[in-house]
Amino acid sequence: MRSKSITRRQVLGASAVTGIGGILMPVLPLDLRAALTDVQSNDHFWYRLQPEGPYIDSQRGSRAFGFDDEGTIYLSEDNGKTWPHRAKFPNSGNITFSCIQKNGNILLATRARIYLSTDQLKTIEPITVKNLDGSAYLPHKPRNPDFPGWYFHSLDGVHTWDVKGRQMMVWGNYCNVEGGAAPVNIYYSLDQGRTIKIAYSFGQNPNFRDHGASHGATEGTLLGDASNPVICRHVHCVDYNPVENAFYACTGDSDRGHGHECHWLRGTYDAKLDLWDWKVIASSGSNSRFKSGGVNFVDGKLYWAADANGRIEPGQKYDRGIFRCDDPADLPNKEAHTLLFDPEYESANMIIQDGTILAAHYSTASPYENGFIISNDMGKSWAQYDLKGFGKRSGVRFQKKNSDGWFRVDLRKGWITRGEVLFIKPK
Length: 427
Prior knowledge:
With 427 residues, this protein is mainly beta.
C-alpha cells in the first residue's frame, strides 16, 4: 500500500513555485541567497549551512570534528561554535572519513590509511587493520600513488551502536567512484577504534581493477577476496537491528556482465569467538527496490530508501521509493513491503530519529537542485523541498542530531565530491 497524504509547501514563503511531477517545487528568492549560514525555515524544518571555519566532517553529542585543506584538523566541544583542540595533519585535504566514538576517540581516514586520536588530537596514531585471524590487512600498492582507492569512505553517516552493553562500530566503504579502485569491505571495531578488523570482504569484481581509474577497467590487478563469488561496486549502508541482534548491509550498483552487484546481507556476530556469519538475503539488478540505502530500524521494523535506476521498457515504472517491512525476515518478499512514499526520483540516503524520517534526492538524477524529503510523523504525511539557494547538491552522510537538535548532512557536488555541510532541525 502507498501513503497518499502529501503536504506541499514553499521554502521561505517564496512566491514563485514550479510544478514538476505533481510535486510543487518552491523557488528560493534571489534576495535570500546571501546569508545562507543564517537559519532559514519552512513548515517542517529549520536549516542552515555551517558557519565559516573548519569543514565539519562528523558530530556526536556536543562534539564536532573538522578539518581544512591547509594541514590542520580540529575538535569542538560545543557543536562547532569554538575549536579549542587542533593539530597539524599535513594530509587533511584528503580526509574521506571520520567518526567520533562514544568515549570521545576520533577515527579519521585519508583514502587508504586510517588513524586514531584518543586524547583530543594531542596525538594521532596510524591504525593497521586486521583480518579476523589477527594478521595485518594492508592496502594494495596502487599503480599510480595518486589513486590509492577509498578504503574507508562511507555514504551513510551512522556507524556506531550499543550492542549488548558495549559500543560496536561497523561500516562499509563506498568506493570505486573517485580516487582509484579499491576492494570492498565491511569493517568493525569493539574498542572505540583502537582495533579495526575485517568483518566481510567482497569478491573480485573484474570491472574495478587497480589500473589508476576508479571504474571501467579491463586490465590490472584484481582486488578483493578471490574465494568469495559475491561481488559489488561498493557498500551503500550498514545498520543494526537490536531486536534481532543482527546487522544488515546493502550494496550497489549494477550488472556489468559478471553478476549482480546489488545485494542485501545479514550478519550476526559471535562475541565469544570473535566471528561473523554473513548471508546474502537478496540480490537484484539495478531497476529494483533492492538497489537501496538509508537502512534504518525502528522498533524492529525495517525502513529503507530505494534508488532503482536501471534501463526500463517504455511505460515501465521504476521500482523505487521509501519502504517499510514490518518483519525483516520478510525482506526478500516484495508482497510484505509497504511503500510509504514515492519521491519519483532517485533517493537512497535517509535517517530516522525521534519520529522524523529525513531523506534526500540525488541531484544528478532529479529535477530538484537540492531536494529533501521529510516526514515528521513516521511516514503518515510527507513533504518535499528544493533548497535551490545552495546550488545543485545531493544530501549524503546523514548523521544523528547533535546536542542542539540538528542533523548534519553532507551536500555533495554530483553525489560524491565534497561541497558544503548543511544542518537541519525538524519542527
